């Protein structure tokens, strides 16, 4: 190999000889292929010989395209010529999947880095080749796990929709839902093991799921067994009471699953934001409808009121996301406040932003817990025994991020909590 020998002789320094360079070259744990400016192979190390199944003498003097699958060779010649005209050290094939061709006709996915140098007026290119088959297989496995997780979540959603429509066979359907949820939990745990913050997320999720699913399921099963006993006309009142318990339990299950689905869409970037301008009358009517709905569902004889100081004719926001945010905050206020307490929504327009506050007279949040309140699956220490997923406020924060807004809170233990939303209003820099 006179060509390769000349290259090495030209590269020898004062304190290291060609044999040491050759040892370094041949003992590298990455494939190295050296080509000249015509794209012909002039040298390769032992690791590259093992990668491609060729002996060095079989490739010296041959075009480098011999190591590239036939369907890519035409384009590669153009890429190679462009590189020789504008040489620079870089990763080859950025944004594309690269494949290498072995002597036996097999292919493997590769990551290729290019370097270059000039010697005696000639240009040479060094290609460093890494077989990334293991990495690609891992990516495919993760993709399959994600698709399976989406499939299971869809099945769980369908099961719960059927639960609302077919009360007569709730027992059987809930047993199937429980099996699907257990399977979903196992797959979620496997996915979270891939993440650095698995520990805290996993412990919070398991604690929440075991409580939030077991409690309503136990209520449903016990109420169904009691309903069967009240088959006489005299027992219709008790029967109706237990059917209402079943409906409330199923509704709670839907809330939990909705939180999971909302979080999944947020994590995958599937939540569409529709920022629009709409009249203040529509905005206030939306809030009034929301309050009527929550007042009807509340069993605590609480008073929920709305006050506002809005003079602008239009509000700019995503109506659907804004309604979901307010639904979450007011539902929390109802859940964590005592009977006959007062919950207030106040709306105001300041220069450049809409401000909405939700205040309650509930159990409050400690300063320590406030630091973690918007994290996934986090629940404050003083809410033990009260149902909740620990996802609601995390979702609220993410929705506000999508609208360019923010949220603050002011709370003291046993004295209540106030959440305040700030939503930008383009073109409203002054009133």
Q: What do these coordinates show?
A:
- With about 425 residues, the chain is of the alpha+beta class.
- The chain is built from 13 helices and 13 strands.
- The chain has 3 domains: about 130 residues, Beta-Lactamase (2-Layer Sandwich); about 130 residues; about 150 residues, Histidine kinase-like ATPase, C-terminal domain (Heat Shock Protein 90).
- Strands 1, 2, 3, 4, 5 and 6 form a 6-stranded antiparallel β-sheet that branches. The chain has a 5-stranded mixed β-sheet with strand order 8-10-11-13-12, covered by helices on one side.
- α6 runs antiparallel to α7.
- The protein is elongated.
What's a concise summary of this model?
This protein has 13 helices and 13 strands. With 431 residues, it is an alpha+beta fold. Mean pLDDT is 76; it is low at 1-14 and 198-203.
Task: Describe how the helices and strands are arranged.
Elements: H1 2-11, H2 18-26, E1 31-36, E2 41-44, H3 46-52, H4 56-59, H5 70-85, E3 90-92, E4 98-101, E5 107-119, E6 122-131, H6 133-165, H7 170-192, H8 198-227, H9 236-267, E7 276-279, H10 280-297, E8 303-309, E9 314-317, H11 319-335, E10 342-350, E11 353-359, H12 367-370, H13 392-402, E12 406-412, E13 416-424
Parallel strand pairs: 8-10
Antiparallel strand pairs: 1-2, 1-6, 3-5, 4-5, 5-6, 7-9, 10-11, 11-13, 12-13
């Amino acid at each position: 190999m006179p060509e390769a020998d000349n290259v090495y002789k030209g590269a020898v320094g004062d304190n290291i000889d060609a044999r040491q360079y050759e040892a370094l070259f041949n003992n590298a744990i990455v494939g190295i292929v050296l080509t000249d400016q015509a794209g012909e192979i002039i040298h390769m190390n032992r690791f590259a010989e093992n990668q491609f199944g060729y002996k060095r003498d079989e490739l010296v003097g041959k075009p480098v395209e011999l190591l590239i699958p036939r369907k890519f060779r035409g384009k590669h010649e153009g890429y190679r010529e462009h590189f020789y005209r504008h040489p620079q050290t870089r990763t080859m094939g950025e944004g594309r999947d690269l494949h290498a061709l072995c002597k036996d006709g097999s292919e493997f996915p590769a990551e290729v880095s290019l370097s270059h140098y000039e010697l005696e007026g000639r240009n040479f290119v060094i290609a460093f080749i890494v077989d990334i088959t293991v990495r690609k297989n891992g990516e495919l496995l993760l993709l399959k796990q994600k698709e399976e997780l989406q499939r299971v979540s869809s099945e769980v959603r369908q099961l719960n929709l059927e639960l609302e429509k077919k009360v007569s066979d709730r027992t059987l359907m809930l047993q199937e839902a429980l099996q699907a949820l257990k399977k979903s939990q196992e797959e979620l745990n496997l996915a979270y093991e891939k993440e650095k913050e698995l520990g805290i997320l996993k412990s919070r999720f398991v604690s929440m799921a075991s409580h939030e699913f077991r409690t309503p399921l136990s209520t449903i099963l016990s109420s169904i067994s009691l309903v069967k006993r009240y088959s006489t006309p005299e027992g219709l009142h008790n029967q109706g009471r237990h059917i209402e318990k079943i409906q409330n339990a199923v509704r709670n299950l839907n809330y939990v699953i909705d939180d999971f689905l909302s979080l999944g869409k947020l994590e995958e970037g599937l939540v569409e934001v529709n920022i629009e301008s709409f009249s203040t009358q529509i905005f206030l009517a939306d809030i009034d409808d929301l309050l009527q709905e929550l007042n009807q569902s509340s069993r605590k004889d609480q008073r929920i009121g709305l006050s506002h100081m809005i003079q602008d004719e239009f509000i700019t926001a995503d109506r659907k996301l804004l309604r979901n945010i307010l639904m979450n905050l007011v539902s929390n206020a109802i859940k964590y406040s005592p009977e006959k307490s007062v919950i207030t929504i106040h709306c105001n327009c300041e220069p450049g932003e809409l401000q909405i506050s939700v205040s309650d007279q509930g159990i409050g949040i400690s300063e320590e817990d406030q630091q973690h309140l918007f994290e996934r699956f986090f629940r404050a220490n003083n809410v033990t025994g009260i149902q909740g997923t620990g996802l609601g406020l995390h979702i609220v924060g993410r929705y506000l991020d999508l609208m360019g807004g923010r949220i603050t809170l002011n709370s003291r233990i046993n004295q209540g909590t106030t959440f305040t939303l700030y939503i930008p209003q383009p073109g409203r820099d002054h009133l």
